[in-house]
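Recap quiz, item 2
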Amino acid sequence: MPRRVTFSRNFTLSLSRTCRCYCKYCSFATHRAHLHEPEEVERLLDQAERRGAKELLVLTGEMPEVNAEVRRRLTAYGHRDFTSYVAWACERALARGILPHTNLGVLSRKDVGRLREVTASQGLMLESVSERLMETVHAGSPTKHPARRLDTIRAAGELRIPFTSGILVGIGESEEERMASLAALAAVHAEHGHLQEVILQNYVPHPSYYGEEPGEIADAAQSGRTGEADPQPLPAWANPVELEDMRRLVREARRLMPDVGVQIPPNLSDWWLPLVEEGATDLGGLSANGDHISPEHPFPSPHQMRKELAPRGYALTERLCVYPQYMDPEWLEQGVLDTIKLKYWSFIPRRGSGRREERAIHRDLVSGAIARARDGMTLSEDELTALFAETRPEAVEDMRQAADELRAELAGDTVTFVVNRNINLSNVCIVGCAFCGFGQGRRSPDAYEHDRDEFVGRVEEAVAFGATEICMQSGIHPAWGLEDYLGWLRLAREVAPDVHLHAYSAMEVDHMCRVSGLSPLEVFARLREAGLGSTPGTAAEVLHDGVRERISPNKLPVARWVEIIEASHASGLRSTATVMFGHIEEPWELAEHMRVVRELQERTGGITEFVPLSFIPFHTLLGRTHGVEEIGREDNLRHTAVFRLALGRTVANVQASWVKMGLDAAAEALRWGVNDLGGTLMEESISRMAGSYHGTRLEPEDLIAAAHAAGRPAAERTTLYEVRRHYDAVTA
Ligand code: SF4
């Protein structure tokens, strides 16, 4: 399974660099008056918005108002203290839909509480628990005393504030002091559970920026206007840091705080990748206007890092400055939560009832609905919504049992599978669905298109493998016309006259209609003539135009999907029906999907099977930039049971997709209403390019063994569910 490595797309506001401390390693602070004027703050926030930042990192010196001029300006701007001015800047950010994360140094409990109202998270580096450093690098910096810092960190815990802390490595501390610092953070986290991540930041010496604006230097470096500065010699008080030192810290942080993210700044060393491989989970805020603490070290771009991470099995994924488990009224003020619900709701973890509580969930309907569904009756939208939202274990078990019984009644105990080959002729696509990792622009380095020989070779391999079905689907290729689609069928027919051709999604047929000007019925007549045997019911995603608008605005609307599948049935072609779930959809949207499918089946009877396809997020826009995570196994099975119940007696066959959920979970789904394990596939690109990790090919023996392991007989079927061969379970 690709491991998610996260980062935050942020913008840094160094509201004031005036600081009361004199840390030897700091090139950010000044002891002269520095405070951005309100107009300047508004201008910078507009820039943040234009640069697509989701987080505003408010970074400042400690207690700037120790400076009289700063105090005078604060009063002139109408603020009784610096915290009030920071709160104002945060409100201005929230008004633009940008989530504030403040890092202001040591604060009183009261001030931490004041900022809770307008921040999504706060932060304070512990730096180190070493009091020894108060004589060296932290001399003259009273608030660098570990006890003072732990007080602020603890106060944030008591006030239920999602918090980021961390340690500085290489400022003269010993290995023992580093480990003790992590232990101190683990202890305060054990008290309050508020640490969302710990930063392991290696010290990098800086040139002095006396009289310069680090923010401007950082912005110039980040936008490539200036190159990286030459490495600086290590000062006498600092100690060199090796990769092995950092690896031990990553391991220790993971050991002490397994539920806390471990962040590594990717701009301060070249070892971020080996540290990710060691267990680091986050690359921090990749600030659009550079690193104001280390301005001469620009952040690598997400694109660069993704290219390094993906081949190693990591999925670089955007997060918000508040981690998903804290997106809850217990941890966030309503105003901040409302901003997330409005702008970033896809980042809110799925909690049974979906993310957007726009509809009431009638839990009281559940037990009656299960009984009615078991009898094959049509459920209302509220009943289906309640079932899709249900997470109570005993009710979920009732749903499982009812689905299992309905399966046994409609399809018996035999577990079927088909020996087939997938052929995705090309992934060139003009549609650009946010859930898709397969479709590519023509000029994309990942784009491909099989030629005639390549295609013939794959068809011949299928025949040699004993495949009875070839399933062909591709991206919507801008240069392909109806003749191209007919051509592939005729060629397959020529090479493998006995193989059933299950090809072309409703989206591809819609494209054929557009480029040919023919109706779906006319197109299907031509396709049948060329050899088409049946239609994949894909491109259904979720049959709710509200969802389609959000995940694939360029894809055919629900009514057109229904029209095309209905035309397929009217042309004498059976089809499957699918749902692609486990992304941003809500329970009531799945209820609508099942209403559409059931009513279509009641009209035509042309659907052979229903195939739930769980969303694979890793290398898709939704996964990369909208924080959508892969649905869990239990949730996947629970949905599967409800799909079976929603269909009633209209569709006998429900398939579990091993390429999406894994063969083990697919076999378990045989107890949740499933009677079919799909096909051998031989190749699979659509899920693989989205980041699926369950392989792309199975042997018939694997599918038979999975059925037998579930205590069920197996049978090889055709595409249209005629049984070709039985494989009874061998009883001891
Ligand atoms: S899902 Fe299909 S139509 Fe959408 S981008 Fe991917 S290949 Fe293209």
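Residues 429, 431-433, 436, 438-439, 475-476, 507, 552 surround iron/sulfur cluster (CB under 6 Å).
DSSP finds 27 helices and 20 strands in the chain.
End of item.
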